[in-house]
Amino acid sequence: MENQTIISAQGVNFWYGDYHALRDISLDMEAHTVTAFIGPSGCGKSTFLRLLNRMNDLVDGARLEGRILIEGEDIYARGVMVDELRKRVGMVFQKPNPFPKTIFENIAYGLRVNGVRDKAFIESRVEESLKGAALWGEVKDKLKKPAFELSGGQQQRLCIARALAVQPSILLMDEPASALDPISTSKIEELIYELKTEYTIVIVTHNMQQAARVSDRTAFFYLGELIEYDETKKIFLNPEKAQTQNYITGRFG
Amino acid sequence: MSTLINTKYDRRKRRTQGIAFWVFRLMSLAVVAILVWILGFLVVKGIGVVNWEFLTSMPEDGMTKGGILPAIVGTLCLVAGSMVFAFPIGVMSGIYINEYAPNNWLVKFIRVMTNNLSSIPSIVFGLFGMALFVNTLGFGDSILAGSLTLGLLVLPVVIRTTEEALKAIDNSYRNASLALGATKLQTIRKVVLPMAFPNIITGLILSVGRVSGETAPILFTVAAYFLPKLPTSIFDQVMALPYHLYVLATSGTDIQASRPMAYGTALVLILIVLLINLLANGLRAWFGKKVKTN
Ligand SMILES: Nc1ncnc2c1ncn2[C@@H]1O[C@H](COP(=O)(O)OP(=O)(O)O)[C@@H](O)[C@H]1O
Ligand SMILES: [Mg+2]
């Protein structure tokens, strides 16, 4: 199968005010793969992830150098429509954050803000998205119920479904299972495995077993630098760098 | 020997705890008692004159007989008028300050100024309203001038409660919306505002209470001493409950004879405020529920 680069970071440096949070990061990610970002807290994993859908734009005093290409387009070029970009690059957050609306309206939200009015279309897309997030069976009889009544794990899958509803090509996940119990976590992991046939997934995780289980490639960050980026197998079995070796064997971090 | 048990120490500690508990409890009970006392006092003194006729007829005989209809209508007009003015402007400023404005000197300045605005004595608002609305803009003594003056007075309250209500909304909801490709305006309109609305209504309740009770700001801008007819336009003068109360208590034609009318007026004023509060609370609850199930 021909592999195709869908995300390409080139010489990325990033600052929060004076704080140099990311140093000269370059990496390419291929379509329909799962890439895991690992590394100790504060090393810049989330920061890098948020650069990919320009969520860091919201931070005062943030500054970027270098280029980030998504599907060949420089997403920080002048005139880029940030909301269009975010439709292409969906995001799932660490803590499940459904809106205080019904289950149905949570999923429909992304369509409605995009001007979709067609009721039948919205209904079919809601069903599709919930099926895509392996939640349909559990909620199909209570679509009109508040999303807050779902369990934490279900809420997180709802958030995944919500992101799928706008049909992104890339899905960013920032420690999506860190607030969940082991069973919910394994459901999310299974889901990630299924989703990669249609989406490109980038996942930040604290949990090394998780990275090993779900990802094709793994990037190890340390103090704002990308130390090593390779096939997950290679990173876990035979890393090039001593720092990577130390981290995955739990000698620090 | 146990080092953990010392009954004497324990007793002393428990006594201090007990005293603290009772002091706090008595203080809060005292507050309730005062409130009940005021209400009871007004009910006892005023209930005698409050009847259907009192509520629906014009004052007569130098305000010693008849009713207070024009003052009720006047106060309702002023409440409505000032809210029409203060609510949209206040809510929009609050949204600007909390959602849009960068955290720079301008915003800090706006915040300081709104706080200052709320500490200006209300009689000064009255003077300002007279100078600007009554004279310069030529509205004359009118509902319009009075409503604008009262609106200015409560603007800081509306702004502040809006700001607080928005601040209480976790950023994760904004992020979730933006990450789905919603614009900032869509995020505010469809996610943030509905969630904040119940608390914004609190600001509305506070303002209504304030507006319906103020005398000084309406003194030179709208309030009529005696005007036994209902307003027909926003350029009319009106009577208003707090000012009417003041007149009855201090400068009527026969103060002794109008004393019961004064208590009746006070009772009606308080009841109106309570009623509006209840209504607003109902609205608040309704919105809170609607948001979650929509
Ligand atoms: N909004 C922000 N403003 C300033 N500094 C930030 C902000 N977000 C993160 N940082 C800092 O940037 C560094 C990287 O943070 P982050 O990307 O969240 O790390 P990770 O996700 O790997 O734990 C940390 O030192 C953090 O304190
Ligand atoms: Mg993080």
If you had to describe this structure to a student in words, what would you say it looks like?
The complex is a heterodimer of chains A (253) and B (294). With 253 residues, chain A is an alpha/beta fold. Chain A has a domain at 5-96 and 168-248: Rossmann fold (3-Layer(aba) Sandwich). Chain A has 10 helices and 10 strands. Chain A has helices at 45-52, 82-88, 103-112, 119-132, 136-139, 152-164, 182-195, 208-214, 232-237, 242-248, and strands at residues 5-16, 19-30, 34-38, 62-70, 73-74, 89-92, 170-174, 200-204, 217-222, 225-231. In chain A, strand 7, helix 7 (182-195) and strand 8 form a beta-alpha-beta unit. Chain A is globular, with a radius of gyration of 18 Å. The termini of chain A are far apart. The mean pLDDT of chain A is 94. Chain B has one domain: MetI-like (MetI-like fold, Orthogonal Bundle). Chain B has a two-stranded antiparallel ribbon. In chain B, helix 4 crosses helix 6, helix 6 packs across helix 8 (184-213) and helix 7 packs antiparallel against helix 8 (184-213). Chain B is globular. Chain B starts with 6 loop residues before the first helix and ends with a helix. The model of chain B has no long low-confidence stretch (mean pLDDT 89). The chains are: A alpha/beta (253), B mainly alpha (294). The interface between A and B is medium-sized, with 32 and 23 residues.
Hetero ligands: adenosine-5'-diphosphate, magnesium ion
Look at the helices and sheets of chain B and give the structural class.
mainly alpha
Say what the CATH topology of the domain at 5-96 and 168-248 in chain A is: Rossmann fold
Low-confidence stretches of chain B: none
**Amino- and carboxy-terminal Cα gap of chain A:** 37 Å
CATH H-level superfamily of chain B: MetI-like
Number of helices of chain A: 10
Helical content class of chain A: 25-40%
> Count the strands of chain B?
2
Mean pLDDT of chain A: 94
Overall pLDDT of chain B:
89
